[in-house]
Amino acid sequence: MTVAQTKNRLGLLSLVVSIGLVAVKFYAYHLTRSQAVLTDALESIINVFTSGFALYSLYLAGLPKDENHPYGHGKVEHLSIGFEGALIFIAGVFILYSASLSLLHPHPVARPDWGVVLLAATAVVNLGVGLLLVRSGKRLKSVALVGDGQHLYIDAVTSIVSSGALVLVAATGIERFDSGAALLLGGFILVNGGRMLRRSVSGLMDETDTAVVAEVIAELQAQRRDSWIDVHNLRVQRYGSNLHIDCHIQMPYYFSLDEVHTQLHDIEELIRARFAVEVEMFVHADPCTFSACSLCLMPACPVRQHPFQHTVVWTVTNAVKDERHHLG
């Protein structure tokens, strides 16, 4: 099974589970007439729409590059998270409004025991499927699957809090526990929707993923050759699960074009071997200058003008700058 097929099957699983749990939660609301349960059920409706959109985005992200999309279709996964975050945020606003009215005018909660049983069952399912999606999403480098799984985590939390509210109402007879829990859940949902929107915007705006950049630099440092005098202006862009990397590498100016091509090919291959996703890498070769002699490890260099002093250790701080390194 291909990576794209695995992603699509996981997305379909999320959609089917979401539809089933929405039915269970609205049945629980029918039995209890609880504001907290209604809040949980409304939030779960969002799961259905977002899971469906996530499934479609996974299908698009798996399509090959074409003339209109030379970098592939992977960025649609960030759009999927933004769509999901926007719906969650809107739901949070509505839930806060509804819960506030219910807090001012509480109403009786019927059959809380059945509500607790049904919501607890949905929480267990959501946690299990959410864990599967997050783990698989991280392994497959899919932000859409990770986002969908995290949303199921949120759904599980709302179910647990709603169950707790029903237990308190049954134990104390204080109906405002139900509305208070709904108000708390509305705020929680609102904050998480905002966070997902922020993550979506970051991805669409090509915000630097420092962890991935650090991995690329660490691999170059670990596999470093004497002829790789310097690395700078390193940039990483993520297109769905795929990576686009470009950088400048300084090499001896007397290398032939064939030798430079061999070195660049080796660099690209070692980076591709490091990441379990498709990597598109463009490396620009800069000729060395005599000012780089003090940083160069090339043995028996025929044109050396200055003795070697020390190497520059490449880090996230210095390798991303658009300037060659120097002593100082």
UniProtKB/TrEMBL annotation:
<feature type="transmembrane region" description="Helical">
    <location>
        <begin position="41"/>
        <end position="61"/>
    </location>
</feature>
<feature type="transmembrane region" description="Helical">
    <location>
        <begin position="154"/>
        <end position="174"/>
    </location>
</feature>
<dbReference type="Pfam" id="PF16916">
    <property type="entry name" value="ZT_dimer"/>
</dbReference>
<dbReference type="InterPro" id="IPR050291">
    <property type="entry name" value="CDF_Transporter"/>
</dbReference>
<feature type="transmembrane region" description="Helical">
    <location>
        <begin position="180"/>
        <end position="197"/>
    </location>
</feature>
<dbReference type="InterPro" id="IPR027469">
    <property type="entry name" value="Cation_efflux_TMD_sf"/>
</dbReference>
<feature type="transmembrane region" description="Helical">
    <location>
        <begin position="12"/>
        <end position="29"/>
    </location>
</feature>
<keyword id="KW-0472">Membrane</keyword>
<dbReference type="InterPro" id="IPR027470">
    <property type="entry name" value="Cation_efflux_CTD"/>
</dbReference>
<dbReference type="InterPro" id="IPR058533">
    <property type="entry name" value="Cation_efflux_TM"/>
</dbReference>
<feature type="transmembrane region" description="Helical">
    <location>
        <begin position="114"/>
        <end position="134"/>
    </location>
</feature>
<comment type="similarity">
    <text>Belongs to the cation diffusion facilitator (CDF) transporter (TC 2.A.4) family.</text>
</comment>
<feature type="domain" description="Cation efflux protein cytoplasmic">
    <location>
        <begin position="226"/>
        <end position="288"/>
    </location>
</feature>
<dbReference type="InterPro" id="IPR002524">
    <property type="entry name" value="Cation_efflux"/>
</dbReference>
<feature type="domain" description="Cation efflux protein transmembrane">
    <location>
        <begin position="12"/>
        <end position="205"/>
    </location>
</feature>
<dbReference type="Pfam" id="PF01545">
    <property type="entry name" value="Cation_efflux"/>
</dbReference>
<protein>
    <submittedName>
        <fullName>Cation transporter</fullName>
    </submittedName>
</protein>
<dbReference type="InterPro" id="IPR036837">
    <property type="entry name" value="Cation_efflux_CTD_sf"/>
</dbReference>
<feature type="transmembrane region" description="Helical">
    <location>
        <begin position="81"/>
        <end position="102"/>
    </location>
</feature>
<keyword id="KW-1133">Transmembrane helix</keyword>
<keyword id="KW-0812">Transmembrane</keyword>
<keyword id="KW-0813">Transport</keyword>
